[in-house]
Amino acid sequence: MSYELWDTDTGNLVEAFQDRQSALLAARELIVLNADVYPEMLTLLVVDSRGAISTVASGNALGTLAATAAPTGDRLSR
């Protein structure tokens, strides 16, 4: 399973992650650094081992989820 963070305005993959916690930490960081455009333009997807894609959360729901996720490590851009 992998997690993909997408910018829905540009249609670009921001980054892919091996676990949900890392993806949420990155989403939180992006939201803090780019509060003028995020979280509205972010979507977090999960891709299962068969390649099926599901939405975890997007927009403000992703912002809320990222804000409540406990950090487990540091990101480079801090």
Cα separation of the termini? 27 Å
Strand content: 25-35%
Q: How many beta strands in the DSSP annotation? A: 4
- H/E topology pattern: EEHEEH
Low-confidence stretches: none
Q: What are the defining features of this structure?
A:
alpha+beta; four-stranded antiparallel β-sheet; globular
Question: Explain this structure to me?
Answer:
The chain is an alpha+beta fold. It contains two helices and four strands. A four-stranded antiparallel β-sheet has the order 2-1-3-4. Helix 1 (20-33) packs across helix 2. The radius of gyration is 12 Å and the shape is globular. 21% of the residues are buried. The model has no long low-confidence stretch (mean pLDDT 90).
Write a brief structural summary.
This protein is of the alpha+beta class. Helix 1 packs across helix 2.
List the helices and strands and how they pair.
Blueprint lengths: L1 E6 L4 E6 L2 H14 L8 E6 L5 E6 H10 L10
Antiparallel strand pairs: 1-2, 1-3, 3-4
Helix pairs in contact: 1-2
